Amino acid sequence: MNTLSLGLKRIRYELVGYFRARDAVVFTFLFPIGMLLLFGSIFRDQLVGPPGEEISMAAIYFAGMLAAGVWLSGLQTLAIDLATEKHEGGLKRLAATPLTPTAYFIGKLGLVFITNLIQMILLVLVGVFVFEIALPTEPEEWLTFAWVWMLGLACFTALGIALSALPRSARAASAVIIPIVLIPQFLTGVYLPLMLLPDWLQQVAQFVPLTWVGRGMRAVFLPDFMEAMELNSAWDLGMGAINIAIWLVIGLVLSKLTFRWMRERSK
């Protein structure tokens, strides 16, 4: 069986295992949807914008949860999965099978892409049918969504592989990784508008790729007048693409340098 066939079979295996793990489904797959339902319901009656053009706060949280979904699927899912499999000996056992490293990562990347695609669809359905959020009508806006989503997912996936090197045991994987994934969400406009943060935190947030994925989502799904509420009063999509691409390269380099197929022996 060739590598591609093995990789496709591995995708199916990864999907079955993922949806059987209740903690992964709750804290990665359903978490953004649940947070959208929670915050959207609490703040749906609060309106922002000029008279006659107001939008509800639910629309702002909708864009934020789209970005959070990409962040969680790419970064948290892979980091915890890889760290757990490495320290529990799963990767060592796979080395004795016909599964190649390439096929293994095809399975992992397929898992991330498919679960996040389903997640994006569910978030859009909740946004439209629960909170009556208007979707973009111009093809250019959907093209912007596509490249922000795909570039962001690739970036966070590479960073997730690199992050898997931090936990020193399978038991510590969630405890180490979840805070690293959670804290930036409060500093990058996912839950709180950046303008509410201190100036120095706003400047720090500009270096975090999640900030730019969130800004890209807001550029697609929020009206033009919301651009004035961004830092520098601009979407700055070009700068966002550069930032995310730089972090993608950093993630790939760190992954190459730090990823190991089996846990190193204690010295």
TrEMBL record:
UniProtKB keywords: Antibiotic resistance, Membrane, Transmembrane, Transmembrane helix
Compartments, as annotated in UniProt: Membrane
InterPro entries: ABC2_TM (IPR013525), ABC2_TM_bact-type (IPR047817), ABC_2_transport (IPR000412), Nod_factor_ABC_transporter (IPR051784)
Membrane topology: Multi-pass membrane protein
Pfam family, one: ABC2_membrane_3
ABC transmembrane type-2 domain segment(s): 23-265
UniProt name for this protein: ABC transporter permease
Organism: Pseudoclavibacter albus
